Amino acid sequence: MKYFGTDGIRGKYGEKLDAELAYKTGKALCQYFGPGDYVVGRDTRVSGIPLEKALTAGITEMGGNAVLLGILPTPAVAHLTIQTKARCGVMISASHNPPEYNGIKVFDCNGVKLTSEQENSIEYYIDNPPLYDGEKGKTVNFIGARKKYIDFLTTTADADFSGLKVWLDCAYGASATVAKQVFETLGAEVMVDNCSLRGEKINSGCGALHPDYVARSMEGTDYRLGFAFDGDADRLAVVYDGEVVDGDTVLYNISKSITLKDNVVVGTVLNNLALERKLKQDGKKLLRTPVGDKHICDLMYRNGYNLGGEQSGHYIVYPAATTGDGILSAIFLTKALFRDGRLHDIEKLNLVPQKAIAEYAEPSIMYDKWIRSLLEESQQKLDGNGRIIMRMSGTEPKVRVMVESEDMSLVDAILAEFKKYINSVAN
User: Looking at the domain covering 147-343, what would its CATH class be?
Assistant: First the structure.
């Protein structure tokens, strides 16, 4: 792909992504999806304003109506796209990336991220801008968008958190517009951090990528449960009793608050083996997809599975949400932990150690017969008590190798062999 990556168009503002590309993307989207309403949201980044202006100019020039939500989480855009029966939804955000980055995420009319085929078609229209001489569209503000999303979250929760204390880190991002009010509406006492709309500081040393910040902030207080969101609030990190909780443990505990379709949880190849083992003990199973919440969502939608997630903090509770929703995930985790008016201990997993390398290589290395042989031999060495995952990075020209086993000396030896061979090929 020329423009789209693993999660939309993304890059440093003024370099890979600028107002011109946003304008062309707006035109391309309208050419592909046709005339009608286009829901547009953004996070707090300073560059979000000129990108929104350029994107909407492209949409309206092609006869579409740009419906502006203002600053709201990415999952709010997906939700409101469905509710308004819009042609598609667009979120201007670089998610967990630093302030100098921005991006464009696109959802279809069902609130689902685009397929590779759809992205290819839109890229064609970006490079071959369509001509249109019909009536121009309008730009309108969606009055009450924030309230509609808050109402959706609180209604879906169907919970009473009276007596609960919860600490929220909003990362100076989009969750700052809704998270506090949601938990307060559900009865919780809320302490907020980094909750001002300061896009120049978004994700900087705080939020889902820095949950240790919340852990430190909670020290010396009587708060036991803390949540950290990333810039667009599609990702969640959890702190419990002063400790950062790993993503697999979070996903397992969320599963205890939901009646699972077919007793299935959907994850990726990177979810820890401990999660798979624990679910099996409970009479449930983990189905794995390639890395990326897009793949998780696809399997969930096709089969009606209602819970999936990644170690990285993307959790999908379907059909309530059609994409990762940090606030909704926090609610369902809280429902699993807060019962009978008190907070119960989180059930921890005995994680199997994982270690990984990432080495520069061409994609062709994935088809190299010698590295495939090395992969097979290494898997045999684990003797069924571990896993090896080899894949190309979705964001840079690197091959990633992850080894999972209780035998760390064996893990180190296997990774050393892979590193040696990959570097010999690359050089």
Answer: alpha beta
